[in-house]
Amino acid sequence: MAFLLRAIGFTESIPGFPYTPCSGSSTTTADTPTITWTMRQGECDESKRSVTIFSVNLADMEPRKRELVRHAMKRAKSLLLPGILRCYGAAEHRDTVYLATEPCEPLSKMKCGQMGSPLATSGDDDDEGEAFNDIVALGLKAVGSAVSALHKNKLIHGNVGRDSVFVISTGEWRLFGLELVSGFDDVGSSYLSYCSLLPAYRRPPETQHTNYESGGKTCAIDSWGLACLIYEVLGVNDQASGKLSQSCSTEDLRSCRTLPRTLQSGFSGLCAVNPKMRHDVDRFLRTSDFIISSDYVQSMQMLDDYSLKDAAERERFMEHLANVVHTFPRDACKHLVLQKLRASFTFGILPGVVDTVVKIAARMPSPEEYATHVSPVIVALFRSKERMVRLRILQHAAELLPQMPPAVVDGEVWSEYASGFESPIAAIREHSARALVPIAPLLTEKRIVNDVPKYIAQLQQDSEGPIRTNATIALCLIADTIPAEYRSKLFAQRFGRMLKDPFAPSRTAALRSFHTTLKHFTAQDIAELVIPGVSPLSMDKVAEVRAVALDVIHAAVSRLDANHREISSSTANEGNVIPPAGVVNNNTNGAGNGVKGSNAALDTQGWGSSGSSSVIQLESTTKGGMENSMPAASKASPFPQKVWGSQSSPSVREDDEESWGEEIQMKPHKLRLHSTATRNGTGAVVPDSLTSDDHPEDKRTLKIRKKGIGASRLS
Questions:
Q1: Where are the alpha helices (DSSP H) in 92-194?
Q2: Start and end of every Protein kinase domain (predicted)?
Q3: Do residues 85 and 58 touch, judged by C-beta distance below 8 A?
Q4: Which of 196, 256, 444, 623 could join 235 via S-S bond, C-beta 3.0 to 4.6 A?
């Protein structure tokens, strides 16, 4: 490490400069007419804060440039004004000057489409062109504000231009290049001594005269510099910008007509030949349509002044921001807008901010970007105690949650989200049930097995019928995320419970859920649990419930029929060896594929309404019967008994005679064919009527059980 530090001009430690370059970081050269800086990324030794380290070697530099470097270091340490690149520390050691600033990149190294963000922009696309103009407008406002702050402190910058502007990590522009900063009363001795180092077009016309007096409108020097910055950024292309110092003249600057129309008037005022007629920077910021008509610039200003606004102004602004944020530069939304929104949460979160976050999140296709920039904001919104904010974030859960990292959802979002199940507000409970559908795939298996059934059961006891209905449907929609070994038992309990719900849509939802999840039940479960539980609803007083119940019964019986044929086929092939109870048809290509209607689908496209609250619309694709095939499940039921009000029968053995009643003589009737009969078209005899005769010689009797569910047996 010591060798690396020495190779780039650092010793092992620099007194009074606790900053170290990052190993492997590349270097960038910031060429200016006055000083050539070497830039590299570094970090603070104590706080590990990221910085950019500027360095310049004084050994081979002419004396007057050495003075400029030392002057720049002094000004960087002392000037803490808005819009000025913030300097964290500076030192001179062994003929080298070091400056540590906030992370930045030189504006002069970026292409026109990257000034303020890595946005790849071309002038051919109107939307991207407007986004680029917004970036420049905000940058000019930042630089102009820095110059105005200097003027209020009786200082001029004297070196405003593209090579003295740097772009920080949020995409905002910052003014640097402080080597020519001087006081109003010191312009003649300081600025004029070194301004000859600047290109000719960068020097105001009056300063090129030998009889220039500094007692006039001194701030006009920076007005000319701001006009040069506009010309270098918007007036020429990237290829020509590198040759401006050799090819550009004052007349070229003043005659530029390629600027946006809203900037022409303000630009002409900044570069007037007569310094007394030249507009000052503050006037340009207040009157330029290029800046004041930009929604992006005004929104960023409002976010900066958010703490000074009252509640009504904040609410109006958040609603306006949601309507215009889609027009902002994408990377500006990522780096700047979201950051300022999070800062505004300190003063309270308004419901309107959720819509803004949703629109920004929709423009983040990269999972890495989403996790870095959007996820922290979503977590902060879930932590809000404002009920309207909670409701809004739940309403947009399907748009915001799927792209979040599962670890963040399970570890940080779930605990806040789950509190909505116990909210006193019915709308929050309802949308918490709906939000379970997008959030479930991001949860761990432990969370799904332990927590989700508990909250589903809680919602199924809610006083609001639509909430009970939506809880049932939500469980059906997340069926595939539940571990296979828990599905049949959980579904039987949760869906079976709702079959007796007094709210008709809730019973319908339970039936459709059974229909949809029938593939997760074994044949034994269907015979012992599903059919006995569903059958009573075939006599329901509501026609829709009866129809759906019959559909489920038909699908269940088809499953049992397919299972019967599969068992019969396997026993024939295996020497009539009867398989044990619970054998399931696992052959998805066999007779089980003919099961009708067991693959009922859910319509999740919209939300219907019932009463005062809305209910998920759950519709089967089958009509009046079953049309789709359902492969038989392969896993036996984990529980052998029925769960819908069934009672255990007393233990009865086959040889237990006490459980049988007295023998009753049963006289079976014998069918007799009348003498009149006809033949059908196939030649078979078809009787006209059937009668029965008594046959006392048939003495077979039936014994009937006294108790239990026992069947009769012949003797």
A1: 126-152, 192-194
A2: 1-291
A3: no
A4: 256
